[in-house]
Amino acid sequence: MHPILTVGSVAFDSLKTPFGERSRIVGGAATYFSVAASFFTDVRLVAVVGEDFGETEMEVFGGRRVDLAGLQRVDGETFRWKGEYSSDLNSRETIYTHLNVFESFQPTLPESYRPTPFVFLANIHPALQLDVLDQVEAPRFVASDTMNFWIEGTPDELRKVLTRVDALVINDEEARQLSGEANLVKAARAIQGMGPKLLIIKRGEYGVLMTREEGFFAAPAMPLEDVADPTGAGDTFAGGFMGYLASADEVTEAVVIRAIIAGSALASFAVEDFGLDRLLRLTPEELQSRFDYFKRLTHFEAL
Amino acid sequence: MHPILTVGSVAFDSLKTPFGERSRIVGGAATYFSVAASFFTDVRLVAVVGEDFGETEMEVFGGRRVDLAGLQRVDGETFRWKGEYSSDLNSRETIYTHLNVFESFQPTLPESYRPTPFVFLANIHPALQLDVLDQVEAPRFVASDTMNFWIEGTPDELRKVLTRVDALVINDEEARQLSGEANLVKAARAIQGMGPKLLIIKRGEYGVLMTREEGFFAAPAMPLEDVADPTGAGDTFAGGFMGYLASADEVTEAVVIRAIIAGSALASFAVEDFGLDRLLRLTPEELQSRFDYFKRLTHFEAL
Prior knowledge:
2 copies of one chain form a homodimer.
Chain A: E1 4-7, E2 11-17, E3 20-27, H1 29-37, E4 43-49, H2 55-58, E5 66-67, E6 71-73, E7 79-85, E8 92-98, E9 118-121, H3 126-135, E10 141-144, H4 148-153, H5 155-162, E11 167-171, H6 172-179, H7 184-192, E12 198-202, E13 208-211, E14 216-219, H8 233-247, H9 253-270, H10 277-280, H11 284-298
Parallel strand pairs in A: 1-4, 1-9, 2-7, 4-5, 4-6, 9-10, 10-11, 11-12
Antiparallel strand pairs in A: 2-3, 7-8, 12-13, 13-14
Helix pairs in contact in A: 1-8, 3-5, 6-7, 8-9, 9-11
């Protein structure tokens, strides 16, 4: 088992879905990632919050394997995001994004974080991703996420990140945008040419596609009757994926594939309730039972 | 191994995709279905063509296990459809649909067809589906397809069909429309309440969902680099599915699941070229190799 380091947003989210509303709940990519990954291994969090992020908010990390030595608390307000989902949950509108303390964030890794072998660069400015990566001594496996905003706005810095990551975890639209290819097979090949040998494409309710030596691995998502709130599903997937990977002795193709199922299972729980609520009350027994469900979901005898 | 009977359209298609155009090529739901199913079992075709459907066109059935005793040839023109696909192949516009000889089609089953144990009612007027079903002596397993046109236009007759089928094979949009439920889990349950115990939902490039006693079975589609023409993919899936099912001794859940893979594999070939071209030159070895690919596509060791 190896520890994992992540850098990304810790935030206050306000959101509205067809099933309800929540104001100022704890969210952020690095938060979802850390809580999910901590089911499998020790997590070292690099992020920044403001003075408004108090003890109550810190409780989401309480009793978990999340090291907070790298979580800076500075003057000002915590990152805030507000979004509203469409009636079928397939699209969302951002009402506002206030970077606040993230605007001047300069990540400095605690000495104890530097030798971390597994690194996940969540969706933040690629310059910050590079900055953090530079401070890690000899990373063994690095994965990153990104979004349309950086693909369009900071393509050169993003390309630099891509030359240094082993795996890129993005959604299908981002893969198309980054590669300029409408077809996902072609998009995957083009992105692999930019650096990441392993590409993991998130397709929301349709699951995940992963590139492999020969062809692909595909994990369907679990068909869910009640999705309360899709916020953080992708980051939860990434957390489960990287956490499982770091918990293994070696990164083999079979382990990567099981890690995808681990991420898919955690994400399927995350969306069942608002914010982090479902993950925070998730038991290891429930998680194991969903791993079993995922096996039944796709397995068949050879024809 | 059991023979299978199908009723549906045999047609002339004209189509345009981003990769080319074809005029007046042989198509139709029952044609794709029959060619696909004939890889696994004997097919008995019930359909009608006009005088313009000659020996050359008949060649698509040549040397296959397709019984044409129920294929009527009457005065007039064969059913014609013309369609044009969007640049990403995700939608298509129908330029015209000329029912022609189908307008007055009265299916009469040859005596030899009556005891057929497996029946597939392809997408035609539900009254015709019922008419054919009434002429089968003691069907053991009946499946049907339908479309938005019948869901809206002939709901009562469609409901009658549904009370008499074991399986319904439709796409996700049709499932939502038929049930009035946006969520597919709820849609599936509502449709099962209308009759078919087994619901198979086609999701195009995302594969297939199947209801089962506990939860679902999900088969992702094969990620394809070059899709020349999606026409007939759904009917090819249904043909592979029902053909495989009929070729087995018993209809168990494990067999139904393998049948879904058989259908998915055949459909993945069908779209690689225009019309029936790829299916017509498909070898058993290629098909077996794709079954193996589908196994690698989704299988993983238990977590």
